[in-house]
Amino acid sequence: MKTRIIMLLLISLSCTLFAQKNDTELLSINNQLSEMSPTGREIHEQSGLKIVCERIEEDGFASAYESYSFSIENNTDHSITEPQWTYTLPLKGGGEFIIATSPNDIFTIPIVESKDLYDIDVDHCISGRIVFRGIIDGEEAIVSYNIMLDLKPHIISYSEIIKTVNETNTAYSIDFTVRYVGSDFLRVGVREEYSPSLIMQTIEEPFVAHVYRSSINAFNYAWVWLHVYNEYGEDEITITLKNLIGDSDITGVQTIHSDFVNASIIKIYTKEGKYMMQITDWDNLKELNQEIYILQLCNKDGIPFKTIKYLKGQ
Predict the structure, then answer these.
(1) Extents of the domains making up the chain
(2) Are 227 and 183 contacting, i.e. CB atoms less than 8 angstroms apart?
(3) Of 84, 124, 199, 285, which one has the fewest beta carbons inside 10 Å?
């Protein structure tokens, strides 16, 4: 009996040592380890290597509808040669499918195509795997990264909100753009303070939607609801609009009087008074890089009728 126990222990120890010695070559062992590793963290960080992506948080969750670029953070004293990247997705029937490979320093993975081919978990995510191999100081090194690709749609961002006040200063319109993925349309709702109604509209502009709503009461608060959905889930953002009466410092938005919209020519100066350029479309102001400008509003004959300070929203 003792002899059998000793033999089993020796066999177990031998298998363990073999796995540790060859884990850079045996993908099956790495696959098993990847299932036990936290999502988004590298497996067997060898020789101070780490796979990084600036657009993905530490939890490793990303959108299946966006492309991402990865690089190697090298904390060793040696350079890396013969880099090789591999990106795989799990197939619905088992096994993995190689999506992309590359010998470059920067590795970019594409958006997920043909989603029905892959194994989708209960949270509507596909678990992808990125493996990097390279030679450091004459020896092969490997590091892996698990990425969870969310199939639910996602609102990425929205631009600064331009508010245009009407002639009587009692109402205003809003104008901005929304970037989103995972759906072909954006739902937008506006509800004003003291009003029970939520006025909805559907904007069928994939990826980048232009939002314009008018006749919002300038005396009250209002809320803008952005909503996207698909067969896997939804995403939403609520934006609070402060009332404009008695509030000249509105963070994140820019209030513009109707005289500004009616100007045929807009001459732009720095806050120190140095002339920069002139434009004919106020949308071009969105391209400005600084924060404060002096604008001279002119009629169609080029005669100025008003000078205002323009604060570009953050």
Answers:
(1) 19-150, 153-260, 263-314
(2) no
(3) 199
Q: Transcribe 138-149 into DSSP letters.
A: TEEEEEEEEEEE
The pTM (predicted TM-score) of the whole model is 0.63
The CATH class given to the 153-260 domain equals mainly beta
Give burial (CB, 10 Å; 0-12/13-18/19+) of 62. buried
**What pLDDT was estimated at residue 245?**
67
173 or 292: which carries more pLDDT confidence?
Answer: 173
- Determine the straight-line distance between the first and last CA of the chain, rounded to whole angstroms: 76
- Beta carbons within 8 Å of 229's beta carbon, 6+ residues apart: 153, 183, 187, 235
Residues paired with residue 192 on neighbouring β-strands, in sequence order: 222
Composition of the chain by helix, strand, coil, percent to 5: 15, 50, 35
**Rounded CA gap, 1 and 38, in Å?**
40
Report how far residue 92's alpha carbon sits from residue 118's, in angstroms, rounded to the nearest whole number.
5
Mean pLDDT along residues 48-76: 93
Q: Specify the CATH number for 19-150; select among 2.60.40.10, 3.30.1490.20, 3.40.50.620, 3.40.50.850.
A: 2.60.40.10
How big is the CA angle at 194 (ends 190 and 200), to the nearest 5 degrees?
20
pLDDT surpassing 70 at residue 20: no
Confidence band of 47 (pLDDT split at 50, 70, 90): low
* 8-state DSSP, 291: S
